[in-house]
Specification:
The chain is an alpha+beta fold. The chain contains 3 helices and 3 strands. Strands 2-1-3 form a 3-stranded mixed beta sheet, with helices on one face. The protein is elongated, with a radius of gyration of 15 Å.
């Protein structure tokens, strides 16, 4: 399934609990391709899927300095964290 489906469902679940997505920070780890030229579009797509502003999305990209399967170019890794406010 497209990742947008999962983002939209996460947003729906937060809304169902009367919560609010505050921000999302993501880190992409890959030797290639270069993500820099695509980060703005990625932020817009994530913001649209979650119903939050682009300024609430942080995306960084790095390499694994030739270490492990990522460093050998055999795959990529992603880490993401979302801040969510829920009512008491």
């Amino acid at each position: 399934a497209p990742s947008r489906v999962f983002l939209e469902e996460a947003s729906r679940q937060v809304e169902a609990r009367n919560g609010k997505l505050v921000n999302v920070d993501a880190m992409l780890v890959a030797e290639a391709p270069k993500f820099g030229p695509h980060i703005s579009a990625m932020k817009e797509n994530i913001a649209n899927a979650l119903g939050i502003t682009v300024s609430a999305i942080g995306i960084k990209a790095t390499t694994n300095e030739t270490m492990g399967f990522v460093g050998r170019g055999e795959g990529m890794a992603a880490h993401a964290v979302a801040s969510v406010e829920l009512p008491d």
